[in-house]
Design goal:
The chain contains two helices and 35 strands. With 410 residues, it is mainly beta. The chain folds into two domains: 29-96, Immunoglobulins (Immunoglobulin-like, Sandwich); 101-404, Methylamine Dehydrogenase, Chain H (7 Propeller). A four-stranded antiparallel beta sheet has the order 3-2-5-6, with no helix packed on it. A four-stranded antiparallel beta sheet has the order 8-35-34-33. It has a four-stranded antiparallel beta sheet with strand order 9-10-11-12, with no helix packed on it. The longest helix has 18 residues, at 2-19. It is elongated and about 85 Å long.
Length: 410
């Protein structure tokens, strides 16, 4: 009897001792996880049960263990993560919610709409928010959101069906650059300028812009830059000016009256008409990373964005403060495109870039966000043009016409 009693006492002591944990200091026993999502407002589920909380939030009083966290937000794909929590651990989980493509993207193409061609070289928006699409062989197309209207050689006086650039003035006068001269569309009438009816030196017009005085500036494939004042043509080439090469990919005028010229192999030439002065930014005179310039856009802060073509120099895109180039490429950022086809700046100052090899990119809060066929609803990674409407929607020429309604709040 005494032996049995002794065994019971020992057993009781053993089991009670196993249930007790090592002493824990007050306030250090439990752990917590802060859950943050972009965008915020996602409902948080913890181990398959709703917490009743939305991001950003803190899940507290956690014992050590393996946990599952789910985030659910309307128009976004459900996101799941697993985490191992140790004792006295305060973690933060930051998650990018992936958009559900069908809620954010719409694509119109030649199979599901009257769009005559899926290759769109340029997109311009008029004062009524109509979209004017320069196609690569089917003329100019107007889209008002419902109705499609095509202007080509068979039904209008447009100079050519290959539209390389579209410029729309504030009074809705439309200019197009084509491979057979350039044209003006006003009050339903086309006026065409080419080598047959004017002093235009080259029919292959790569881009078009208009300065504050109303002069039309044209870049050409092989004959330099041309200024047209409505009556006369003035030609700037390597023989009579400071232009470094005669093949010019783009031209852009700024608020100071200067003309920025993106050349094919000679960098950027800046011409000031008031002084007849030239400044050349090439690999000798500046830190420009690439002398093959394809696009130039000026943002609201008067900063210049420069897009390049592949060459022996670095591909990608740069911001330029007129003295120094800050370059973005796959080597130093998340920008992986090498063929820049378009640059658009929103009213909030966010930069969007279309590329012919990697979809489109959005620059915000110091980083680049990529949109391609793998992570978004864009129809094709070959994006040849981009524009932003007054509501902040992005219009992209990639496998037809795409509209993206996201990316506005950041």
């Amino acid at each position: 009897m005494p032996k049995l009693l002794l065994l019971l006492i020992v057993a009781l002591f053993f089991f009670t001792g196993c249930e007790e944990e090592p002493p824990v200091l007050p306030g250090l026993k439990f752990s917590s996880i802060t859950v943050v999502s972009n965008p915020p407002g996602a409902v948080v589920f913890f181990n398959n049960k709703s917490t009743g909380k939305v991001t950003p939030t803190v899940i507290e009083n956690l014992e050590p263990g393996f946990y599952k966290i789910d985030l659910k937000l309307d128009k976004y794909i459900d996101t799941t993560l697993y985490t191992l929590v140790a004792r006295n651990q305060q973690d933060t989980m930051k998650l990018e919610m992936m958009e559900n493509p069908s809620d954010w993207w719409v694509n119109w193409n030649s199979s599901n709409s009257p769009l005559p061609l899926n290759v769109i070289n340029d997109i311009a928006l008029d004062a009524f928010d109509n979209k004017w699409l320069g196609t690569n062989g089917k003329g100019l197309v107007k889209f008002d959101g419902q109705t499609w209207t095509a202007f080509d050689r068979s039904n209008s006086g447009i100079p050519d069906n290959y539209i390389l650039d579209v410029y729309i003035e504030k009074n809705n006068r439309i200019w197009v650059a084509t491979t057979e001269g350039f044209g003006r569309f006003e009050n339903g009438v086309w006026t065409v300028y080419n080598r047959n009816n004017s002093n235009l030196p080259d029919n292959y017009i790569t881009s078009i812009d208009i300065d504050l005085l109303g002069n039309v500036w044209l870049s050409t494939y092989s004959s330099g830059v041309v200024k047209f004042d409505g009556v006369t043509f003035k030609i700037y080439n390597t023989g009579n000016s400071g232009l470094p090469v005669n093949r010019v990919n783009c031209v852009k005028t700024d608020q100071n009256g200067s003309v920025l010229i993106g050349t094919h192999g000679g960098g950027i030439a800046v011409y000031t008409p008031s002084t007849d002065g030239w400044i050349i930014h090439n690999s000798v005179t500046s830190n420009i990373p690439n002398e093959f310039v394809n696009k130039i856009v000026i943002d609201q802060k008067n900063e210049i964005w420069v897009g390049y073509l592949p060459s022996s120099g670095m591909s990608g895109i740069s911001s330029f403060n007129r003295k120094f180039f800050t370059h973005f490429s796959a080597f130093n950022s998340g920008f992986t495109g090498t063929i820049i086809t378009g640059v658009a700046v929103s009213t909030t100052g966010n930069v969007w870039v279309s590329t012919a090899d990697a979809g489109i990119f959005h620059y915000t809060t110091g980083k680049w966000i990529k949109y391609n066929t793998a992570n978004s609803g864009i129809k094709d990674n070959v994006a040849l043009s981009i524009a932003i409407d007054r509501d902040g929607n992005k219009w992209v020429g990639a496998g037809g016409l795409n509209r993206y309604i996201g990316g506005k709040g950041f």
